Fold this sequence. Notes:
Layout: E1 5-11, H1 16-19, H2 33-46, E2 53-56, H3 60-73, E3 77-79, H4 96-102, H5 104-112, H6 125-142, E4 147-152, H7 154-165, E5 182-188, E6 191-199, H8 204-208
Parallel strand pairs: 1-4, 2-3, 2-4
Antiparallel strand pairs: 1-5, 5-6
Amino acid sequence: MNMTTRICFTRHGETDWNVAKRIQGQTDVPLNETGRSQALAMAFNAAHHDFSAVYSSDLQRALDTAKMVAERRGLEVNTLPQLRERHFGIFQGLTAEEGLQLNPAAHACYMARDVNYDFESGESMLRFAERVKEAVAYLTRHHPQQTIAVVSHAGVLEIVYRKATGRPLHTPRDFAIPNCALNWFNFDEHGWHLETWDDHHHLHKVLLESAE
């Protein structure tokens, strides 16, 4: 029997910390005006798909994005804390440049993508990847043969992309993860499979408009 689960993963809309290139991690930063416009445009596009359920990280930027998708489908948002962004410990709230000035050793681990480094009070990349796998296992277990929407964070989408395409965790990120793009994956007994990455045609007008 085909037990494939099809999941549309979306990164939340833009925040002011995204613009400032500040490491958000699990800091609960809200969407900015552009982010809300992106989420609305994405929800209009996503409304063409028949989702059985909508899931989200419980952080506000993801939850508010997911609510726009759910409302257009007449659904409620199911929050799943395992879909949170990675916890970046002492680097949360900093830019990479600030991290370099405050803690050069930690910055070196950050730039080297040391999979065992946990930023003293955060999560290592290995532990974070395990958490994302646990989240996907939960979703596929509860939604066999269904199509669902998941709104999460760049780090979570990166882990899913890497797992589905066979990219190791320690290699540089060589792919974009835009806010509010649609990214489609299939999950079955044979593994994780990328279907479509970075569908953001619905954002062209939003991205070209002034953010003021």
